[in-house]
Structure formats: C-alpha cells, structure tokens
UniProtKB/TrEMBL annotation:
It comes from Sphingobium fuliginis (strain ATCC 27551). Pfam families: PfkB. This is Ketodeoxygluconokinase. The keyword Transferase applies. Keywords: Kinase, Transferase. SUPFAM superfamilies: Ribokinase-like.
Length: 320
C-alpha cells in the first residue's frame, strides 16, 4: 500500500460504451478513453472516479479505493487513472471478477440515458477481499474521505457497515468525511431504503453535497432550504445543495454560476463541481469561493463531450 494521501475516494468505476456518432470520434475523445471499434468508443466513468480525476488535475494527492478485475481491461483502467495522477495503491484486484459496464445515449439537448451491466462488478467486493483490511487501515489516515450514495448502493449491508466504520476512524484521527447524495433509483429496492442509508451516511459526515433533484425524487425535500435542513445545515455540518444550472445553496445563500453555458453533455457536471469545491475548500478558501470554483469546473465540463473531458487550453484547473 502507498503513502498516506490527503484525499481518498471510495466507490465504483465502470467501463463506458458510447456510440462514435455521439461525437466521440477521433480527436474528440476525453482522457477516459481506453479503446474503440465497431462504431462504439470504450471509455470509463463513475461518480467518484470522475471527481478523483478532477482533484488530481488540480494538483491534489488523491487515492482511489475500490476493486477492479485481474483482467487486461482492468489493467488498462488502472494505467489510465495513474496517467491522470490518481494514486491507485488502494485499488484492489478481484480474481474472477470484471469491471461493471454501462452504455450511454445522448439526445439533442446533451442529456443522457444509461443502460447498466454491473450486478457482478468487482467493485462490489472492495471490502470483502483478503487485502481489504489493509486498504481500510491505510485509508483511515486520510485528510478527507469522500464517497457517495452510489458507493453505498453497490455494497452489501455488511460492507456498508465497514465503510461507516472507516468514516468513524477517519474522523477519530482528525480527518473529515464528505458525502455526495447521488441517488439512482434503479440501484435501490425503494426510496425509503435509500433514505435510510443516506441518513446513516449524513450522520458520519462533515460535508454534504446533495443535489436538490435527487432529494425531491427520493420523496422528501420540498425546496432547497428544506433539503439543506434535512442534511443538517446549521448543525455543525457544511452542506452544499446543488441546483444544476441555477447554482447551489451555500451558507443559506444561492451562489449562481458566473455564466450560463450551452450544454454539450451534462454527464459528470455534479462530479466536476464536487472536485472544484473540495479542492478549493482544502486549499483554505471560503465556502462561497469554493462554490464558484465548482461552478467554473462544472461549466467547462458540460461544454465538452464525456464525463471526464480531455484537458484543453480553457481547462480551469490551474486557476481553482
């Protein structure tokens, strides 16, 4: 296992199939590409790995704690993440397992629909492998531990408890825990179950990054102030409620994006915001300044194809 990192992200990364006609042709792909053929491009994606890559591009030391297979495709994934600057020393290999897979379709407005094959994905076993205990011990020394409701959704109940124990260990050592409320209904038996595990995670978190649309879909929040209150704003937690194109709620105030941009591809916008926000906060900037940093990175992200676009001359990483 590697040296203690400032940030450890815990969750799932998957292979992504997208049609070449969606604009991912030669010269237009993001750094997430690992192959192509037959009219399809093969890339990778996943909420926490997206955020990890943004953080690494900002110059943060970030480790990805998860599990992938021991197959050649998994080796390519590991190499791609390392090329982005992500520390993979906490990335375990599960013999006989493969990464999950999803295919995407994009409409004329840049909105995407997804089709998943992830039931037996290696990431589901990240807390159940022979090396898992050592991974947890290393991760406990993190300055910041970051995970999402999707992370919880793919894990067994026993593994969720192990993740919660890791959260407690990080906080006991003086670190902080950040939790994103990414809700995907198809991953849960019902909304009430998702809310139960979400609330367990909130109770162990110092920073909350919910999205209002997710909270409404889960059947609780009436408006942005209600969502912030339900997540514990004003109770010693730092809560940022994301509002899509309208910005976010921080410290009781709406912080709007600096400019409204045309959406080329909406995927990964919230993950990019989280990367910019967390980077700025760890650098000592105020919550409002961090929100603006998150908006800048998300705005750049949605103006390009892919959840993790390739860096270009307009990429704002150096200015965040």
């Amino acid at each position: 296992m590697g040296k203690t990192a400032g940030i450890t992200v815990v969750g799932e990364a998957m292979l992504e199939l997208s049609r070449a006609s969606d604009g991912f042709g030669s010269g237009q792909v993001g750094s997430g590409q690992v192959g192509s053929g037959g009219g399809w491009n093969l890339r990778y994606g996943g909420d926490v790995i997206n955020t990890a890559i943004h953080l690494a591009r900002c110059g943060d030391h970030v480790r990805f704690a998860s599990a992938i297979g021991a197959d050649p495709m998994s080796a390519e994934l590991r190499a791609a993440w390392e090329a982005e600057g992500v520390d993979t020393s906490l990335l375990l290999s599960a013999e006989g397992k493969l990464p999950g897979l999803y295919a995407i379709e994009t409409d004329a407005q840049g909105e995407r629909s997804f089709h998943y094959w992830r039931g037996e994905a290696a990431a589901r076993r990240m807390f159940d492998l022979p090396e898992s205990a050592a991974m947890v011990e290393e991760a406990a020394g993190s300055e910041l531990l970051y995970f999402s409701l999707i992370t919880l959704a793919i894990l067994s109940e026993e593994a969720r408890e192990k993740l919660f124990a890791l959260c407690a260990a990080v906080r006991a050592k003086g670190g902080k825990v950040a939790f994103d409320g990414n809700y995907r209904a198809r991953l849960w038996p019902d909304a009430a179950t998702a809310r139960h595990w979400r609330d367990r995670a909130i109770a162990l978190s110092d920073m909350g990054l919910p999205t209002l649309a997710d909270e409404v879909e889960m059947g609780e929040a009436d408006d942005v102030e209600d969502a912030a209150r339900r997540w514990g704003a004003g109770e010693g937690r730092e809560i940022v409620v994301k509002l899509g194109a309208d910005g976010c709620l921080v410290d009781g105030q709406i912080v709007a994006p600096p400019a409204r941009l045309s959406v080329v591809d909406s995927s990964g916008a919230g993950d990019a915001f989280n990367g910019g926000y967390l980077h700025a906060r760890l650098a000592g900037r105020s919550a409002r300044e961090a929100a603006l940093a998150g908006h800048r990175l998300a705005g750049w992200n949605i103006g390009r194809r892919g959840a993790i676009p390739a860096r270009d001359g307009d990429a704002p990483y150096a200015d965040l």
